[in-house]
Amino acid sequence: VVDRRILAKVPRFRELLRQHRHGVFDGSIICQCPDWENERGEHLLSLVTNRMLPRILKRLLREDEFLSPHGIRSVSRIHATHKHLGTLPGVGEAIIEYVPGESNSGLFGGNSNWRGPIWLPTNYTLVQALEKFHRFLGDNFTIAVPSLGNRELNLKEIGTLIAERLVDIYRRDANGRTPAFPADSPFQHDPHWRDLLQFYEYFHGDTGQ
Predict the structure, then answer these.
(1) How many CB atoms lie within 10 A of CB 192?
(2) Which pLDDT tens digit goes with each residue over 74-106?
(3) Which residues contact 157 (CB under 8 A, 6 or more apart)?
(4) Alpha carbon distance, N-terminus to C-terminus of the chain
(5) Domain boundaries, the chain
């Protein structure tokens, strides 16, 4: 989100925006229209337009796809049963699996898996992006959230929903258990360890462990 005061100080960048008005570069839409201002005179520079955003979030906020009790999965859970994507030219049969925990193949990093787990850095980036979109689009831009009975939330509220689920990875539940750790871990019950948190690269897409 760029306000007019900043644009006034960068004439070369402002001219570049003018040359590619309506976000078009070589015939392709590359960003949210830089001519469009909100009520504060700010511009939104984004690869995702306000028309694309509802379609993206509609999938992202479904619990049978990306939204888990502990954040946003890196691959839709729907691929647990729908693995085949069809045949691609030059590639052949394309398959993607939903693997929510440790990778089942050394080809994909062994213990570094991007096909299902919850990654904190990408979730953090998503929450930050939603807050920026909210700043530009305001409270009246809302999305129906299926997990809340299709209740309409604005983008800041959606960011908070995701952030709270991320916190739940380490927040003790009604049984006093922390989802991030195995049931027999000393970090669950040992008074010397239970308040010491370990931060891992990623967490199981279904259990948060």
Answers:
(1) 7
(2) 999 999 999 988 998 988 999 888 999 888 877
(3) none
(4) 35
(5) 1-47, 52-209
